[in-house]
């Protein structure tokens, strides 16, 4: 079957760029001058709008089927397929790791701003942020509402947001939350291990 090399990359560049924006914003939120000023809240609001683009990349793994990797039930040994697979996986893994880093930075910044520096408060903030981002993933993947639509057509967006809630939607949200929280847990274990070996 003929395969167009451009097909799997048509979405990757834009999605990766949108996923990078909140990572950069989280570094700004970690700045002590920003955390102590009113600027933290508008930067945080922009971050919360763009952050779902980071875990959204996990759903891009479904595009692997466009590579047509199977022939009669067996994986094809085709360098082009495996190169495209590697590009997608490297992007998703890198964004997931940096996304967890971003999530930790924003959680700590919010805890600092609200004077909630105990572990339970930080965990509640982290779970809340993963819930919001998982809802954002649903909006992007199933309602097909892009981040910029909020600014271009707010009435249409609000109408769809109010009518989207259902048991199936919530199941999807909780699954995406579980993936993000699991990734954060693994990252925290790695960080603690590195810290303990120093």
What does this structure look like?
With 198 residues, the protein is mostly helical. It contains nine helices and two strands. It has helices at 12-29, 32-35, 40-50, 53-56, 79-113, 119-142, 149-152, 154-163, 167-197, and strands at residues 70-71, 74-75. The protein has a two-stranded antiparallel ribbon. The longest helix has 35 residues, at 79-113. The N and C termini lie far apart (52 Å).
User: Mind summarizing the main beta sheet?
Assistant: 2 strands, antiparallel
Q: Oligomeric status of the shown chains?
A: single chain
**Number of helical runs?**
9
- The topology string of helices and strands comes to HHHHEEHHHHH
Categorize the overall geometry: globular
Structural class: mainly alpha
Work out the radius of gyration. Answer: 19 Å
- Unreliable stretches (pLDDT < 50, length at least 5) are 1-6
Distance between the termini: 52 Å
> Which percent band covers the strand fraction?
under 5%
Would you tell me the overall average pLDDT? Answer: 85
């Amino acid at each position: 079957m003929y395969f167009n090399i451009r097909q799997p990359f048509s979405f990757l560049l834009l999605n990766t760029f949108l996923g990078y924006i909140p990572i950069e914003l989280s570094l700004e939120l970690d700045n002590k001058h920003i955390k102590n000023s009113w600027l933290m809240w508008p930067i945080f609001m922009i971050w919360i709008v763009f952050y779902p683009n980071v875990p959204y990349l996990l759903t891009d793994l479904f595009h692997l089927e466009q590579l047509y990797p199977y022939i009669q039930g067996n994986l094809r040994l085709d360098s082009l397929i495996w190169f495209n697979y590697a590009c997608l996986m490297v992007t998703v893994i890198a964004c997931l790791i940096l996304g967890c880093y971003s999530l930790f930075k924003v959680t700590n910044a919010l805890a600092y701003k609200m004077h909630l520096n105990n572990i339970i408060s930080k965990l509640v903030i982290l779970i809340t942020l993963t819930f919001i981002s998982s809802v954002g993933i649903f909006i992007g993947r199933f309602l097909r509402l892009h981040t910029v639509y909020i600014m271009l057509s707010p009435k249409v967006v609000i109408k769809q947001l109010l009518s989207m809630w259902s048991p199936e939607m919530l199941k999807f949200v909780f699954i995406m939350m579980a993936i993000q929280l699991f990734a954060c847990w693994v990252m925290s274990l790695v960080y603690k291990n590195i810290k303990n070996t120093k």
